[in-house]
Amino acid sequence: MKILTSVFLRFLSVLLLLTLSFSLKASHYSSGEIFYRWSPTPTDSLRYEICVYFYRYTGSPATIPNQPINICISSSCYPDVSVALNKNLPPPGQASPNDNNGGWIVNGLDECADVNDPDYKDLAAHIWCGYATLPGICGDFEFTAGPPCCRDEADNLVASNGRSMVITAKLNNTLGHNSSAEIQAPAGKAFCLSQPGSKPFEFLQAAFDADGDSLVYRLGHPEEATGFPDAFNNAYCGGKANIPFATGYTVNNPFPSSTGFVIDQKTGIFRFSPSQQGSYVIKIVVEDWRFDPVHLLWVKIGEMVREIQIPVTANCNPTSQAGPRLSLTSSSNNAVIQNFSQAQIDSMKLAYNMQVFFGDDSISNGTATVHQIPIFQGYQCFDSIVSIEFNNNVRCSSVDPTDFRLIGPDGVARPVVEVETNCQFLVTRNLDLKLNQPLDVDGTYVLQIRRGNDGNTLTNECGIELSEFYTFLIPVSGCPSPRYELDGLTVEGDMNIRLDWSGNADLQDPAVVASFDAWNIYRADAGVRPFSLLEVIKDPNARFRLDTFAPNGYYVDNFVYDYQIQLVYNGKGRIPSRFCSNINLRIDNDLRTESKLPVYWNHYKCIDPVVRNYDVFKGKRDTNLAAPGIIWNLHSQTTDTTAIIDIPAADSSNQGTYAIRVVARNVNGSSRTDSSESNWVYYYIVHYPGEPEPTVGEVLIPNIITPNGDGLNDRFYIQSPANGVQYEHISLSIFNRHGERVYQNPNFDAVNDAAQGWEGVNQSGQRLSSGVYFYIIEMSNPSSGEAQSLEGTLTVNANGF
User: Fold this and answer.
1) What pTM did the predictor assign?
2) How many angstroms separate the CA atoms of 103 and 93, rounded?
3) Minimal CA–CA distance to 726: which of 692, 691, 750, 710?
4) Separation of alpha carbons 85 and 67, rounded Å
5) What is the residue-wise DSSP string for 366-378?
6) What is the sign, positive or negative, of the torsion defined by CA atoms of 422, 428, 432, 433?
7) Residues 470-498: pLDDT tens digits?
8) How many angstroms from the chain centroid is the CA of residue 709?
């Protein structure tokens, strides 16, 4: 009995010492995590670094000592090993203000939760790391850490504040060395009850794996020690047991959520909608899987664990209640708040075609509403990124380019084509809006946040949206202001229309030249809209364009066209120039007589009527001159759009082809664009001499044909001389009024008769338009064999006499 009593008293004294030790070192551990890294040396390939994090509730009266802790490395292959890990103290600025014993700040805890709520818990992270050399190769190494005493109280675990905490990482190094996954996001986070209609919270716990192994995320069962862990004195290598969940909670449903508790096993994203105030523990397990090329199967080679205690407060953080809030103090925003009256707001709505302007706030001064609109300062011309910084976190999943609408001072939208979210752990405070085209016009731009294609505006981490139509103003100055104008146009050579334009010095601004896209040339039938794109000119230095109607000028003779130009730079078409129209000169056939030729034309509106005059020119074609072979003489001048040309009597000296043209002229100008020429119209004086007495050897050549199919004068042919002997080896060439050969037959003698002669067609057999043509005939005298060449004019009148 004495022996038994002595043993019992000795056991009781040890138990009292342990209890005293526990009470001295006891602290409330909210959560923890453990992971490892392969860290070999040249002489030690089995060396690993092991890190343990314990998160302490700073409201606990007890502290965590600044001393090493001991962990246990166990396996079925080797004896247990105890390893000491040294405590890592925080550098300046990283120490928790509520933990004076080596605790680190846990960022983002109070982003959503109300810190005054009794369920809110401020945490500090205590970190230990150290090195251990494994005894060898084994498939079931375990690294176990067990702090002394107690967990914090958790509503989803039974009597958690009377239970210990044990966390374990696992390693299978039979397929080679391995570093476990490491979760990058902070472990601490408090939430508030979900707002009605808000999307579930997204809580990222994604991990990085240095070996590139495949990771699988799952939920685990929180564990306690079956013995007495005290990592500050000894490694705990004893047994472990699952802590029972409170009624209604399970491993895969550890949290009260109206939308369920969902984990994406590939990404480590948790989604839930907190539905009940309280504090809840979840255990995250990240497994490493590697493919075994020998056995052709996937093998789990390790896992790390992180336990998290999540407080849920009844109310959200008051600073998050209005959604994301603009940071007015950040250097990237460089923002100020400016007050605008209701009249000013209404004016901006009208100017920018917007229905709603919602500012940072609105206040009443007793007589009118003053709207407070943020103004972003410091933006320069040709900036292509607009940066926005917020005071609180924005969910990256809520950001879409269509959430933003930017309108320039010119009323043109600048689409946001991409948003660089700068996300960390699914949230961000900095957004960089990449514009389709840079800011390039002086004035104030309006940026609004709207409900985009994703169905929401920007949403903060707590699931609360920023009010739609939140508005920013962005003043920009110092932009070049390229100006240009269509100076005028003219018909050139009765064939083409030439456009000339000019502009100011800003057209040569390096930024404008660098972002130049095109000169767009537009054309439309007179008075018909819209214009059609005629040509895109890629040369920034281009200042004229030729609209060609070759080969016969039919269109300039018969149509009036409106032209305008447009500068396109920085991906945007600028305001088009004025439009100018070509002068179309016509003969008034209803009033035409044998002695009078009335002509008319449209006004040229690109010369001010006050200084506009029309010069009417008349000319006769001389076939001895180079094409077009017309000598022009001023006929008359007028400010009207009609003129009458006198036609002299037909005789041998007056016969021939005549042309008329009109030139609009600025009486005070002398440059190219101070005048505009019309097309040309033609008339013909035909002399029909009496029938000559034929002489031997002379041929008869007609000077007009009427190829209208009536059997009279339909074809051109050379009649035989009076002696009845036809010339031989006849070649015929026909030229138009521009000196262009339209027909040639070197063997014309084979068809030289009334039935087969030339019937007024071109080389392709197409009917030529009525007019005066020039012929050259080459033939041989049958008597002497001497070659002879004949030239002259021929009138083709397809309508007959």
Assistant:
1) 0.63
2) 12
3) 750
4) 9
5) SSSEEEEEEEE--
6) positive
7) 899 999 998 999 999 999 999 998 989 99
8) 65
